[in-house]
Write a sequence for this structure.
């Protein structure tokens, strides 16, 4: 099927391998990362383009709770995600309590229907704390701080210099910026304690106090604006680039002094989560950060996340969908997914089939992986990957399945003439260290420049390769007569084809595997593709990184290549080239036709 020819020196087109982080989250999603943290990683690793793909429903605060009534440890409300409080206790506590009360057993509540009674007392001079940390289902409370205000009614019963109650907020991870260190930035809004009411001060590099006035024995409505307080406490940082990562109500005591208060009616006001405002705020932040990180081109994308699967939106006119009527968790109605893909295409964009096996990063047993490949392949073959243009293939492990299983899924699509551009992504939510992260794949597009138009054209044609950011520093391509045909579909009656494999920057001891599969359109009942693999050694390539092979295409074939390091680990993958005998029965876009 595969024969070697002499090496050649093709004259390539004027294309550049543009590195792209294609699935990245920041402060509008549920993870710890800020936009600044992700941009630092892109700049440090030499990634040229960062596509922002925040979750659409999280940008909109869709079904995020707007009011907490303190009716119990778990609250449910119509049209919003359930809310759960989790108790925490630290230090030498002598007394710690939390009770959810009503006017029947707590007359001081007045007009409030419910309240939380929170109290703590330490055993000695050391700090003791007791409190409740709140989260919504699926972490849907972790919304952007842009424009966010919180109101909370509080009635202090006992506070002193050694005892205080507080609303503690943890915000997104920030990188080193000027003289500001890296870390999760925290604000403690305190009633009582040693800091005079009305005073704000930093406790350390990433923690601060805002002391609030609330007289004992009286209800007071607190108004909290974390975005504004971040900027005031740490001048120079961007307060909008932060999420409400966590919120905790706490009573803290030293020297056996009591800390005791009632809390009622916690409300979240999110005016910048309405309509298309989140995208506008994101564009403003992109403009601001473009001055700080000039080597990284930022492009606005989106992850449509109330579908199953999630769908990446690249290019076109990005807009937040109307998720009215959808719950807090993804819909499994395939019509919802089809409609989302149609919306992306109608906008002029490309749709990506995200993490096809799911989101878990725990490897499941081999038999379970095989079953997942069989069922998922059958699904994608039956619905033709929902009409998506791209498929997330480059994961070390995702949804329990290894990279090899993702490749098999992709090959099952290729054998059925479902022409998908494979991409490698990280789906990073942390912004800590792209190099050492377990999921650290990036995608390189062969494009005329790094403009959005040029990158989308490359992705449409499949002119892309992807790999491990830490382990691969070269290029991959498949060319014919000096022209890139990677991702392309050739229709010819010829029984053999010459194909030039381009592989530069191979690691010491690395090899290149050529994989050839048959396009037999076997259907959803046959999900174990027969792939013939031949290994090319570094000596098979000339000084330009070129090696010409002869491919038997008497039957329809697809060909792709994989770079394998000395340890046998796949570190970079090309997209396939398809060789078809005729066009009958195939759905081939004009962008992919190579002649």
């Amino acid at each position: 099927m595969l024969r070697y020819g002499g090496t050649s020196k093709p004259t390539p087109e004027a294309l550049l391998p543009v590195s792209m982080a294609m699935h990245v989250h920041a402060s509008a999603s549920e993870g710890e990362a800020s936009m600044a943290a992700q941009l630092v990683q892109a700049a440090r690793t030499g990634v040229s383009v960062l596509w922002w793909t925040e979750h659409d429903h999280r940008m909109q605060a869709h079904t995020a709770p707007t009011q907490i009534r303190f009716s119990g440890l778990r609250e449910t409300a119509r049209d919003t995600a359930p809310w759960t409080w989790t108790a925490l206790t630290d230090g030498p506590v002598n007394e710690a309590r939390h009770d959810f009360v009503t006017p029947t057993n707590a007359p001081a509540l007045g007009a409030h229907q419910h309240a939380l009674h929170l109290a703590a007392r330490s055993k000695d001079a050391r700090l003791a704390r007791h409190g409740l940390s709140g989260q919504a289902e699926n972490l849907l409370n972790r919304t952007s701080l842009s424009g966010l205000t919180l109101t909370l009614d509080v009635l202090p019963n006992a506070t002193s210099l050694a005892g205080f109650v507080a609303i503690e907020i943890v915000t997104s991870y920030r990188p080193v910026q000027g003289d500001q260190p890296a870390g999760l930035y925290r604000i403690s809004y305190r009633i009582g304690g040693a800091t005079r009411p009305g005073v704000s001060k930093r406790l350390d590099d990433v923690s601060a106090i805002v002391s609030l006035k609330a007289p004992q024995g009286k209800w007071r409505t607190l108004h909290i604006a974390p975005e504004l307080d971040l900027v005031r406490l740490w001048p120079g940082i961007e307060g909008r680039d932060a999420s409400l990562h966590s919120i905790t109500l706490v009573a803290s005591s030293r020297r056996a002094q009591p800390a005791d208060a009632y809390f009622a009616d916690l409300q979240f006001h999110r005016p910048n989560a309405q309509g298309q405002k989140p995208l506008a705020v994101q564009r403003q932040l992109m403009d601001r950060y473009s001055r700080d990180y000039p080597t990284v081109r930022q492009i606005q994308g989106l992850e449509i996340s109330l579908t199953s699967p999630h769908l990446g939106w690249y290019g076109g006119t990005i807009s937040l969908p109307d998720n009215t009527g959808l719950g807090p968790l993804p819909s499994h109605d395939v019509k919802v997914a089809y409609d989302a893909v149609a919306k992306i295409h109608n906008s002029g964009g490309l749709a990506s089939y995200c993490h096809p096996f799911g989101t878990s990063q725990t490897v499941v047993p081999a038999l379970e992986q095989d079953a997942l490949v069989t069922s998922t392949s059958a699904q994608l073959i039956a619905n033709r990957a929902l009409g998506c243009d791209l498929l997330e293939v480059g994961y070390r492990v995702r949804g329990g399945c290894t990279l090899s299983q993702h490749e098999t899924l992709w090959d099952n699509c290729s054998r059925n003439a479902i022409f998908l551009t494979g991409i490698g992504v990280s789906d990073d939510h942390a912004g800590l260290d792209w190099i050492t992260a377990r999921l650290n794949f990036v995608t390189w597009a062969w494009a005329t420049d790094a403009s959005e138009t040029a990158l989308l054209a490359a992705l449409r044609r499949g002119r892309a390769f992807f790999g491990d950011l830490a382990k691969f520093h070269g290029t991959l391509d498949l060319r014919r007569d000096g022209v890139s045909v990677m991702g392309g579909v050739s229709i010819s009656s010829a029984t053999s084809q010459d194909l030039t494999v381009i592989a530069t920057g191979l690691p010491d001891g690395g090899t290149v595997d050529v994989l050839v599969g048959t396009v037999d359109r076997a259907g959803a009942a046959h999900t174990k593709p027969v792939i013939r693999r031949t290994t090319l050694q570094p000596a098979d390539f000339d000084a330009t990184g070129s090696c010409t092979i002869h491919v038997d295409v008497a039957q329809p074939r697809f060909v792709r290549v994989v770079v394998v390091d000395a340890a046998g680990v796949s570190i970079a993958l090309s997209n396939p080239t398809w060789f078809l005998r005729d066009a009958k029965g195939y759905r081939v876009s004009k962008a992919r036709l190579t002649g």
Notes: Confidence is low (pLDDT under 50) at residues 1-11.
